[in-house]
Structure formats: structure tokens, C-alpha cells
Amino acid sequence: SFNSLNHDMTLTEFKFIWYMEYSHRMWGRVVGLAYILPAAYFWRRGWLSRPLKGCVLTLCGLVCFQGLLGWYMVKSGLEEKPDSYDIPRVSQYRLAAHLGSALVLYSASLWTGLSLLLPRHKLPETHQLLRMRQYAHGTTALIFLTALSGAFVAGLDAGLVYNSFPKMGERWIPDDLLAFSPVLRNVFENPTTVQFDHRILGIASVTAVTALYLFSRKIPLPRRTRMAVTSLLAVACMQ
């Protein structure tokens, strides 16, 4: 990397990116200890129920898996790739997997914590409520997919290809959208297609969250649930 691309980098500039990576690794290890040490203490004291023990083991396993996946991702950036134009980059597939597992770990941790802290609402299982729950799950999956597509944008530097919105350059649909063969390869390896997909998914996510909010206004919901849906809409708009 130094010989082919960053030969003019100063020692101060190198230290900056080195400490960024080092801090990320150290923070990841602190997170791991914050999971595993209290879990071992609570387990030994007998404060965990049988179902909670399963949750704790799963979360601790996810923490360890996340660390290994991070190492596996970084390793891909250290390999010589003749088709990468001498630009060292990690595999976009491994980057997406690393981000995806982090989101799963965070969501599972938050869900477990809130389940213990807040009692579950006993609501009548009406048709509207069931529909809203299904729609909320679908919206969650769409948001997750949008975040993963963002990892492909980052991994391929696809954000540098077009910097205009809503059009991409002078066109709504760029000419090189399906430049790679076979066609499916474009979805994961063509920077133009990756950016285009991320835009579509982002717009779809905001639309889905807005529709969820409007639908929730028609159903009698507890205050806590209303606050959650309203906060989701606010964060989606800010994002």
C-alpha cells in the first residue's frame, strides 16, 4: 500500500489511521469483556433463569463471532488483488457480514435488555394489531437490508461514482447499471448498481417507516409504543 498508493504519507498521518484501527479493536475487546464477565458472575450467583441462560450464551457467542469476523474482514484487505488497481480494500462481502452481525448483536442485546426492564403490554390480538406487527417486522427486514447495502457501498467506494440526487448524473437509470456479466454480479460488485440499489432501498425504507407511522395512528396503542413509532419516523427522516 505504501509503495503503490500512499508513498507520500507522513508518519503523523499513518499514526492517525493506525490509532483509529487500534481504538476500534480495543473497544471491541472492552465490549466483549462487558458481556462475558458480568454474564459469568450472574451465572455463578444463580441469578439467571434457564431461558435467560440460553440468551446469554447466544449473545456471548455472537460477541466472539463478531470479533473473528472482524479479523477475517481485515485479512481480506491485506491480500494482493490484481484487479483492485493497487488500492487496498477489504472484501465488500466480509464488510457486509461484519456490519450485519454487529446489527444482529446490538438488536438482540437491546431486545433482551428491554424485555427484562419493561413489562410486556397485554393487548387484545385484533386484526389491525396483527397486521401492524407483521408490517413492523417487514419494515425491520427492509431497514436491515438497506444497512447491508450500505456496507457494499463502502466496500466498493460506490459513493464516489455519482454525487447527484435524485438523478445519477444526467439520467434516472445510469447506462452502466448492468455492465457486468452475469447480471447478478452487478448487484454485489458493480459500484453503479450498488449505489443505485442503496438509493432505492433507502427511499423504500423511509416510505415504509412513514406508512407504519400513519397506520399506527389508526390503532389504539399504549403511550410507549406510540413514542417508539414516532421516534422511528424521526430517526428515519434524520438518517
UniProtKB/TrEMBL annotation:
* Key words, A-Z: Heme biosynthesis, Iron, Membrane, Metal-binding, Oxidoreductase, Transmembrane, Transmembrane helix
Any idea which GO molecular function terms this record carries?
heme A synthase activity; metal ion binding; oxidoreductase activity, acting on NAD(P)H, heme protein as acceptor
**Subcellular localization, as worded in the UniProt entry:** Membrane
Which superkingdom does the taxonomy of this entry point to?
Eukaryota
Q: Does the keyword Aminoacyl-tRNA synthetase apply?
A: no
Pathway(s) this gene product operates in, as recorded in its UniProt entry = Porphyrin-containing compound metabolism; heme A biosynthesis; heme A from heme O: step 1/1
What cofactors does this protein use?
heme b
The record's GO CC annotations read: mitochondrial inner membrane
Q: Where are the transmembrane segments?
A: 26-43, 55-74, 94-118, 139-162, 198-216
Q: Name one GO biological process term.
A: heme A biosynthetic process
Q: What does it catalyze?
A: Fe(II)-heme o + 2 A + H2O = Fe(II)-heme a + 2 AH2
Keyword match Metal-binding: yes
Coiled coil start-end:
none
Q: Which InterPro entries match?
A: COX15/CtaA_fam (IPR003780), HemeA_Synthase_type2 (IPR023754)
State the Pfam families in the record. Answer: COX15-CtaA
Per the record, membrane topology reads: Multi-pass membrane protein
What protein is this chain from?
COX15 protein
Q: Which organism is it from?
A: Grantiella picta
